[in-house]
TrEMBL record, chain A:
<keyword id="KW-1003">Cell membrane</keyword>
<protein>
    <submittedName>
        <fullName>Branched-chain amino acid ABC transporter permease</fullName>
    </submittedName>
</protein>
<keyword id="KW-0812">Transmembrane</keyword>
<dbReference type="Pfam" id="PF02653">
    <property type="entry name" value="BPD_transp_2"/>
</dbReference>
<keyword id="KW-1133">Transmembrane helix</keyword>
UniProtKB/TrEMBL annotation, chain B:
<keyword id="KW-0029">Amino-acid transport</keyword>
<keyword id="KW-0813">Transport</keyword>
<feature type="transmembrane region" description="Helical">
    <location>
        <begin position="82"/>
        <end position="101"/>
    </location>
</feature>
<dbReference type="InterPro" id="IPR001851">
    <property type="entry name" value="ABC_transp_permease"/>
</dbReference>
<keyword id="KW-1133">Transmembrane helix</keyword>
From TrEMBL, chain C:
<protein>
    <submittedName>
        <fullName>ABC transporter ATP-binding protein</fullName>
    </submittedName>
</protein>
<dbReference type="Pfam" id="PF12399">
    <property type="entry name" value="BCA_ABC_TP_C"/>
</dbReference>
<feature type="domain" description="ABC transporter">
    <location>
        <begin position="4"/>
        <end position="237"/>
    </location>
</feature>
<dbReference type="InterPro" id="IPR003593">
    <property type="entry name" value="AAA+_ATPase"/>
</dbReference>
<keyword id="KW-0547">Nucleotide-binding</keyword>
UniProtKB/TrEMBL annotation, chain D:
<dbReference type="InterPro" id="IPR028082">
    <property type="entry name" value="Peripla_BP_I"/>
</dbReference>
<dbReference type="InterPro" id="IPR051010">
    <property type="entry name" value="BCAA_transport"/>
</dbReference>
<feature type="signal peptide">
    <location>
        <begin position="1"/>
        <end position="19"/>
    </location>
</feature>
<feature type="domain" description="Leucine-binding protein">
    <location>
        <begin position="40"/>
        <end position="392"/>
    </location>
</feature>
<dbReference type="InterPro" id="IPR028081">
    <property type="entry name" value="Leu-bd"/>
</dbReference>
Length: 354, 331, 245, 413
């Protein structure tokens, strides 16, 4: 077992890169602040239809940030984030419609429920040592079970789902505004900004560092004192809670939720694809991915409605947006496994080092 | 599945493997018997339960058929092929197209679908899954996921969503002690058994099969004794895809052909694969039968619930308690 | 008084007896070498001690309390830390981050943490590499990183799994010096698996010889090398394996 | 190296970007110009012209287009001095959130009213958008009754609701079976388990029990996964039911017909309720003989109305396919909005809403009279009709005033 390829190079190369700043998160927070500020005037500039796309992008963003915490930082590949999205959506919708609870409270409750469910699923998966594909399949199975159960549970309106009752005028407390109001975008922006900020905080916290170490090598991390189970559970809980915010906001924005929209596998796939295209395990990957994936279906829809000459045979057909993001997904995984942001960031870092 | 510990203890095969398998088969058999008995009490009608069992087994054969290719790929390449269902859909469209254009007997379209899917499988493996980009499990998962989205939506884009149907010429119905069995389902079932036997024979008694098994159990070792691992991987993937081709021709008279039909079978097929033990074609067949039964019994137990719910419950239990499958050994 | 005590430890892998009835006792401040042919169960022994594997029978006591089957991180936090024979760096982190991670549980504040980590990095001679990816290190560097990471966790008992393997003779010296210094300055107890006999002879107070999962012999280096059973076991394989690889 | 990779990946992206700019410019430019002022009156049509419902969605869009052409050919909106009508189309892709943003886009482009959307979940979302923007939304096909329980002022529906169809189905069943001398006493119900099938089954059960029929067993299934119904039909057979009611989509209903053929339960009739297959010409060709004499109660184009015949003939010639009921309903929906504009003499959506509420139009779909909307927005004269497959054709058989031929209350096997 001895390593025979002995390398004789003594570790005495000229000094490597300079020490990173003590608090690398400060720069990331600054970038985040700039991005948020730049985004603030968007709904006033964009035409209403594009404004809706912008909100959709932010919803994607929150989902992808949630997924990325568990699967990117934590390395626990989830194929069932629809479970947490759906729990957020359903908890808030149920509390609002059945009990008149403010959607903000509903959102918080949704986060708690999603975090709890994530921890239960996580606990059993880790306890029974499910890894890789098996873990992915288990998460998928749980999301699907939730979909099937809600579909046939009268207690949550079965397959009909919930329609959020309309109120007169606008109310921040009820999270409802006139159609096309920029307030939706701003609230989504705050939530998304909060999610990214949370992911920055987490990544640079002691817990976040443990989680990344556990991802890299679980036994080695445990052997230097990283509490494995506790941190994995913390990660899935945080991830579930953030994703639940996306679900709760989705319900308030679209005012309607049903089992397929909440727990359908396409929700999980959207979260995955967004994060992967942007860059798994990076802070900004989900942001980049959300902008691309979120606007893609709108772009292809216009493309298909009025196709250019050479694509005229596509008129009135569908699936192009999914095809494009499938192709993008495959190409990116094959050619830029760190995603668009991850690969670019690495390039820049390498250049700086030279 | 055990934690990766650099243990210096080599693993050895338990001498009583066959006994253990038989014992587990006994346990499973007993569970099934109990489940059927409970269903009898619940429904109160012998003929209904009997028909459910027969239907469950026949549908289960179909699941086994579809899962065989998947389990082969899973077992040898360790790839969770999310595109398997989409490949099945492609093959079904192909089969439908051949029937529609040439009027060939649906089963004979196998002559087209099997080689075509073999080729597709080989191309997919060579083009997308081999080499560095296809190395990690996450990447394979993502690539096959992308591929399934691509194939499904490609079918949708070019062929439309309208369901297409193929009828089996000379469809008959048989009476099996009061239960009705339609010919097409019986043939598909028999086809599944035959395909299982062919694959089993191929793996056990041909040079290719030996090479595949060698690669599955220890690919660096196989490399050392002169087996071209990459070629075996491509061949295995192609054979797995070709199985989907065969399954498509056998199943095409049973189902409405739609671009998304793969979704319906994909997850069930995964359950079957895990249940039967990855890489185990006979296990896939047995797992398929069990899942078929579970589905049917779920509809008796839980009226109003989707039959899939029972499947997922079984799936999660198996994942947690016996991730190596009913007939597999812990690796 | 013994700081580490194993009694009747048994571990089977599917019929194979990886450890059978292992008894072992290490005193505070002692240096114990563990030798034996490949497949003798040495790494399995470490895995059982550190909680990576649960023994089928027997018990492991650390510092007077029973830690049998406790989680690895619990044992590590109590002060029993191991290194790995095959280096297992955290691939996405720099050398300094790798090391500071191990110090995290007993250090508050980023400044303190960085200082601690850099101290340890310097001690093993990796200062120049501190801010490079751990995966960029050559083998010798990775070995040092293993050691550094274990040291950063502030071990009272340090279990080293072939920490010299893969190093050139010239590279071994500083490591051996460091180990000796560890005991002298920090009072650390050392248990180390090693194939390189010269190092075992020089460093060990006591040597434990394992063969086929069982303890073949224990004693001072001189006693052990004179033991005919030990000679037999080794002749069965190869003469003083890796003596000077 | 990495640059080349980047180019490869971004290639697809740039294609998109250019297409996106080219595509979105016109919709943005159209902006607030239309609707008010002098341009054509815009009516928004939201249908799933892509995705798994694309065939029906496209049919409906074309149906709406034909209605617009008909209006313009007969002189446009008279009360606005003959202003033309234009259809602004949008693709919902069958997804509620897309439907919602597209509805918003159509409204901001100046649509005076919306029609759509074929799927209940999408209509639910669009109804909300319509309500908040105070723009009328006339649903052509939307089965769910749930939307009309929120007291929305701007939602209207041409087709009969799910409950109404189910009630009619029960009534027709009682009457037809009575007339045939084989009164239905025990009715088995097989329905898909989402809102659509469950709602239909619930309403049918209530109505049937009121009429003295016994309902049972009730069996539900998941249409997305079911691939064989032999067990369910065996259960029906074992129960000794006279009639089998089926509320399902196309594929599952076809499988049920196949299972019925295999098991041959001792039934007097198979009775589709809001069924997605048993009144479709496609079912006749896919199922062949085994679908013979299947009944289906549903909304339907009025095969007895010469106007409808003319329209369907035109459709067949133009588009080379038989015009489905959904398309005829879209035609009616557009007519309703146009009538509303005519009545209001204004393109202000709120005025149009009131116009629609007052208007009466003669429908090309089966109804008990002109389309007239009640205070809840439902068409008070909507009606369901009983159809049966006879000799390879779907025929209206009941009630007598809509019948093309008599119901044949006997099974084919």
């Amino acid at each position: 077992m001895t390593d025979t390829a002995v390398e004789s190079r003594p570790p005495t190369r000229p000094a490597g890169p300079a020490a990173p700043p003590l608090r690398p998160q400060n720069r990331q927070f600054a970038v985040l602040a700039v991005l948020v500020l730049l985004a603030v005037p968007l709904p006033l500039i964009l035409p209403p239809a594009q404004g809706a796309v912008a909100v959709r992008i932010l919803i994607f963003l929150i989902m992808a940030v949630g997924w990325n915490i568990m699967s990117g930082f934590g390395g626990m590949f989830s194929f069932g984030h629809a479970a947490y999205f759906g729990l957020g959506a359903y908890t808030s919708a149920y509390l609002l419609v059945e009990h008149g609870v403010s959607p903000w409270v509903g959102m918080a409750a949704g986060m708690v429920v999603a975090a709890a469910v994530a921890m239960v699923i996580g606990y059993f998966s880790f306890r029974y040592d499910l890894k890789g594909a098996y873990f992915a399949l288990a998460t998928f199975a749980f999301a699907e079970m939730l979909r099937l159960i809600t579909t046939s549970s009268d207690a949550v309106n079965g397959a009909v789902g919930y329609q959020v009752p309309l109120i007169q005028g606008s109310s921040v407390g009820q999270l409802q505004f006139p159609a096309g109001s920029p307030a939706y975008f701003w609230i989504a922006l705050v939530l998304a900004g909060g999610a990214v900020a949370l992911s920055i905080l987490f990544r640079h916290s002691a817990a976040g560092r443990y989680v990344v170490a556990i991802r890299d090598d679980e036994l080695a991390a445990a052997s230097v004192g990283a509490p494995v189970m506790r941190h994995k559970l913390l990660t899935v809980a945080l991830s579930g809670a953030i994703t639940a915010v996306a679900g709760a906001f989705y319900t308030q924005y679209y005012l309607f939720i049903d089992p397929q929209l909440a727990f359908g596998s396409s929700v999980s796939i959207e979260a995955i694809v967004t994060a992967v295209i942007g860059g798994i395990g990076t802070i900004w990957g989900p942001v980049v991915g959300a902008v691309i994936v979120g606007s893609l279906s709108d772009v292809t829809a216009t493309l298909l409605a009025t196709p250019p000459e050479f694509l005229s045979f596509l008129q009135g057909r569908s699936g192009l947006d999914v095809i494009l993001y499938a192709v993008m997904l495959i190409l990116i995984v094959r050619l830029m496994p760190k995603g668009i942001f991850g690969t670019l960031a690495e390039k820049v870092a390498e250049r700086r080092r030279r | 599945m055990t934690a990766t510990i650099d243990s210096d203890a080599p693993e050895t095969r338990a001498p009583s493997a066959t006994v253990a398998v038989l014992k587990r088969a006994g346990v499973v058999g007993a569970l099934v018997a109990v489940a059927i008995a409970v269903a009898l009490i619940q429904s109160g009608s012998g003929i209904v339960v009997w028909q459910s069992v027969v239907t469950g087994l026949l549908t289960g054969g179909l699941y086994g058929l579809i899962a065989m290719g998947l389990t082969l790929i899973f077992g040898v390449l360790d790839i969770v092929n999310f595109a398997h269902g989409a490949m099945l859909a492609v093959a079904m469209f192909l089969s439908f197209g051949v029937v529609a254009v040439t009027g060939l007997h649906p089963y004979l379209t196998m002559l087209v679908t099997v080689p075509a899917l073999f080729l597709v499988g080989a191309l997919v493996h060579r083009g997308l899954l081999s080499g560095a980009g296809g190395a990690t499990l996450e990447n394979q998962l993502l690539i096959t996921l992308g591929l399934s989205l691509l194939l499904e939506n490609g079918l949708l884009l070019f062929l439309g969503a309208e369901p297409k149907n193929v009828t089996l010429p000379g469809e008959t119905h048989l009476d099996v002690f009061g239960a009705v069995v339609s010919g097409s389902r019986l043939y598909a079932f028999l086809g599944a058994v035959a395909l299982g036997l062919v694959l089993y024979w191929m793996l056990q008694h041909t040079r290719l099969g030996t090479a595949i098994r060698a690669v599955a159990s220890n690919s660096p070792g196989a490399e050392l004794v002169g087996i071209n691992v990459r070629r075996i991987h491509t061949l295995t993937f192609a054979i797995g895809a070709a199985c989907a081709g065969a399954a498509a021709a056998l199943a095409v008279p049973l189902l409405s052909v739609t671009p998304t039909l793969g979704e319906q079978f994909n997850i069930t097929a995964f359950v079957v694969v895990v249940l039967g033990g990855m890489g185990n074609v006979v296990g896939a067949l047995v797992g398929g039968l069990l899942i078929g039964l579970v589905e049917q019994l779920t509809t008796i137990y839980l009226d109003g619930q989707s039959s899939l719910l029972g499947v997922f419950v079984v799936f999660v239990l198996v994942l947690f308690l016996r991730p190596q499958g009913l007939f597999g050994r812990r690796t | 008084m013994s700081v580490l005590e194993l009694s009747g430890v048994d571990k089977k892998f599917r019929g194979l007896h990886a450890l059978s009835d292992v008894e072992m006792s290490v005193s505070e401040g002692e240096i114990v070498g563990v030798i034996g042919p490949n497949g003798a169960g040495k790494t399995t022994l470490f895995n059982v001690i550190c909680g990576a594997l649960k023994p089928d029978a027997g018990s492991v006591h650390f510092d007077g309390s029973d830690v049998t089957g406790r989680k690895p991180e619990k044992i590590a936090r109590r002060g029993m830390v191991r290194t790995f024979q095959l280096m297992r760096p955290f691939a996405s982190m720099t050398v300094a981050e790798n090391v500071s991670l191990a110090a995290q549980h007993h250090t508050r504040g980023p400044e303190r943490l960085r200082e601690r980590a850099m101290e340890v990095v310097e001690r093993v001679g990796l200062t120049e590499w501190a801010h490079r990816r751990a995966t960029e290190l050559p083998t010798a560097g990775l070995k040092r990183l293993e050691l550094a990471r274990a040291l950063a966790a502030r071990p009272r008992v340090l279990l080293l799994d072939e920490v010299l393997a893969g190093l050139l003779p010239a590279e071994r010296e500083p490591v051996l010096d460091l180990l000796a210094e560890l005991r002298q300055q920090d009072g650390t107890t050392l248990v180390f698996i090693e194939h390189i006999m010269a190092a075992v002879m020089r460093l060990s107070d006591r040597v434990l010889v394992m063969d086929q999962g069982a303890v073949l012999a224990t004693g001072t280096p001189d006693e052990v090398t004179a033991d005919p059973r030990v000679i037999d076991a080794y002749l069965g394989e190869e003469p003083t394996p890796h003596a000077d690889a | 190296m990495i640059v080349r990779r980047l180019i490869a990946v971004l290639g697809a992206g740039s294609l998109l970007a250019t297409a996106g700019c080219g595509g979105s410019a016109p919709s943005g430019a159209a902006g607030d110009a239309a609707g008010s002022g002098d341009g054509p009156v815009r009516i928004g049509a939201l249908h799933p012209v892509s995705g798994s419902m694309a065939v029906d969605g496209l049919q409906m869009r074309r149906g709406a287009q034909l209605a617009v052409e008909q209006i313009n050919d007969s002189g446009g909106i008279a009360s606005l001095g003959g202003r033309e009508v234009r259809l602004a189309t949008a693709d919902t892709q069958g997804k509620p959130e897309i439907g919602q943003s597209e509805a918003q886009r159509l409204i901001s482009d100046g649509a005076v009213g919306l029609i759509g959307t074929y799927q209940s979940s999408v209509s639910s979302n669009v109804a909300v958008v319509a309500e908040r923007n105070e723009v009328p939304f006339v649903m052509d096909v939307t089965a769910s009754d749930e939307i009309f329980q929120h007291g929305y002022r701007y939602s209207f529906r041409v087709q009969p609701g799910s409950a109404k169809i189910s009630e009619s189905a029960a009534e027709y069943l009682e009457q037809v079976s009575e007339q045939a001398g084989k009164p239905a006493e025990r009715v088995a119900v097989l329905h898909e388990h989402t809102d659509f099938g469950t709602g239909a089954a619930d309403a049918f059960e209530t109505a049937a029990e009121k009429l003295g029929m016994e309902v049972g067993p009730r069996i539900s299934y998941d249409a997305t996964t079911a691939s064989d119904f032999t067990s369910q039909i065996t259960q029906v057979k074992a129960s000794g039911a006279d009639v089998l009611v089926v509320a399902g989509y196309y594929g599952d209903s076809l499988l049920i017909a196949q299972a019925v053929d295999a098991v041959k339960p001792d039934l007097d009739a198979v009775w589709g309720v809001s069924n997605g297959a048993y009144d479709q010409p496609k079912f006749v060709s896919d199922a062949g003989e085994l679908g013979d004499r299947y009944f289906s109660t549903n909304y339907h184009f009025d095969a007895q109305n010469p106007e409808t015949r003319r329209l369907r003939e035109e459709y067949r010639q133009r588009f080379g396919a038989p015009m489905r009921t959904g398309a005829v309903l879209s035609y009616d929906a557009v007519q309703a909005i146009a009538a509303g504009v005519e009545e209001a003499g204004s393109t202000d959506p709120a005025a149009v809403r009131n116009g629609i509420a007052r208007a009466e139009i003669d429908p090309l779909t089966v109804g008990d009279g002109p389309v007239r909307f009640g205070p809840d927005g439902e068409n008070v004269n909507s009606a369901a009709v009983l159809m049966q497959i006879q000799n390879g054709r779907v025929k209206q058989v009941y009630p007598p005033e809509k019948a093309e031929s008599d119901p044949d209350y006997s099974v084919a096997w």
